[in-house]
Design brief:
167 residues; four-stranded antiparallel sheet; three-stranded antiparallel sheet
């Protein structure tokens, strides 16, 4: 058996395994991928409208804060050594807001942040419910426009000129 036959015999299963591993571990998902240097995803929904804040633990100062719009997700990733100041802000936070469910996209915004041992995330929730600005509501069957409402239940006429019970 030649080396070419052995290589081609193992190439297809190896490529299939590699494709499966990339598909299962890549992309933005709620909470992030789970390894150092990976991105984190923060979702905002009608009943949990989120605000994300990064705090410098040395001073308690809010370094960065962002209200995440309802129906969207914030994707964040820290880049070690990407900041302008080696002491106060040696790292860089890259971030971008996407629609909920987006798996891939470029993080186009960035800000200098404190080092990893001097920062923490604070996730807070605004008063709920809060509806999406584009007028879409997430219903049982997916996004429903606000004009598509169920008819109100039949209510008895309780006006004063009409008796409540008729004999």
């Amino acid at each position: 058996m030649t080396a070419l036959n052995v290589t081609s015999r193992f190439a297809l299963p190896l490529l299939a395994l590699l494709a499966f591993a990339c598909g299962a571990g890549c992309g933005y998902r709620s909470g992030g991928q789970g390894w150092k240097g990976s991105s984190e995803t923060w979702k905002s929904t009608e009943f949990l409208p989120a605000t994300l804040t990064l705090v410098d633990t040395r001073s308690g100062e809010e370094v960065w804060t962002q209200d995440i719009p309802v129906g969207y997700q914030m994707v964040t990733r820290f880049i070690s050594g990407g900041g302008p100041d080696r002491i106060q802000s040696p790292d860089r936070l890259e971030y971008q807001i996407f629609q909920n469910g987006t798996r891939y996209g470029k993080l186009r915004s960035a800000v200098a942040v404190p080092p990893a041992n001097c920062r923490r995330w604070e996730l807070s929730y605004r008063d709920a419910p809060e509806y999406a600005e584009d007028g879409m509501r997430n219903g049982f069957f997916g996004n429903m426009p606000p004009w598509l409402e169920l008819p109100p239940r039949h209510q008895p006429d309780l006006s004063e000129d009409r008796p409540m019970y008729e004999n």
